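Q: My labmate handed me this sequence with no annotations at all. I'd like to see what the chain might look like in three dimensions before we decide whether it's worth expressing. Could you predict it?
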Amino acid sequence: MNSEITYSAAGVDIDLADEAVQRLAPHVRSTFRPEVLSDIGGFGSVVAIPNGYEEPVLVSGNDGAGTKPLIAKALDRYDTIGIDVVAMCVDDIVTLGAEPLFFLDQITIGRIDPDRIEQLVVGLAEGCRQAGCALTGGEIAEHPDAMAEDEFDLSGFAVGVVERANIPSKSSVSTGDVLVGLASPGLRCNGYSLARRVLLDGRPLDQPAWAGADSSLGEELLRPSVIYAPAVLEVFSELEVHAVAHITGGGLPGNLVRIIGADVEIRVYPSKWRTPEIFDRIATEGPVSDGEMQKVFNLGIGMVLVVPADQANKTIEIAARNGHEAWVIGDVMAGNGEVRWVNQ
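A: Here is what I predict for the chain of 344 residues:
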């Protein structure tokens, strides 16, 4: 007679998963808002809608960090990649003026490692604190055979709330508006497959990112994503915002075209902002064409707000109060729904 087989012998260790969850509790609770009505360990997150809304609308978004976790794995550093995942989600929903309320994560891993999972959640909690939302739960899924023991993937989704009357629409963007771009000091989470192909071609991650760089290549590639949500919400609360674009996959052209109607066009002036060195290195060492760089990377602009021209300076001031450098990087004119890259 064959001896009994256990779930652990098949590759899934429930006891280790329970240990991991217990270690996560203080990190998760540190993010709770007053609206959180549930606690860790339940079957669902219970969150009340904040007071003060006349017609509240829920806005949700989900995302991951692309192939950036491969850099975290190579460096054996897992405490920042969660910030990236939160950033990708909350900065999507804030484009509609939504205040991020809560976030749930999905950790899929080949073999449960409580230390690594705790570090992943440390990053998620930090991202939620920066965004002002609560980390209310998630899922740890051990996938033996489907993934190698040291492989993992991290994703999640955010839910926010906005007054229905305050949701911006494409029809609000009109001739004479300007684009205020908020600086991104690095890649954030986009274009990593191309960046890794170019920059990791036999080059050690512990060497300087480039001659004269203050950081190693690994540090540069693992640089956490900026979270823009609080700054964008402050602009929404004080000024007239016609549209907002989160600059992720597709770059400036691919994301700006999503926020305008067919009767206007956007002109972008790349000379108006400072492009971080890493983008120049990718373009030169690839080599990668200008057109390809524009549609893959943010090129130093992580978020764009479209506002009336007379509110541009105030928008830049609010961005600065929140720690973001910002510039007027473009304008809106009559057109046919296109985004034009104008070199001056």
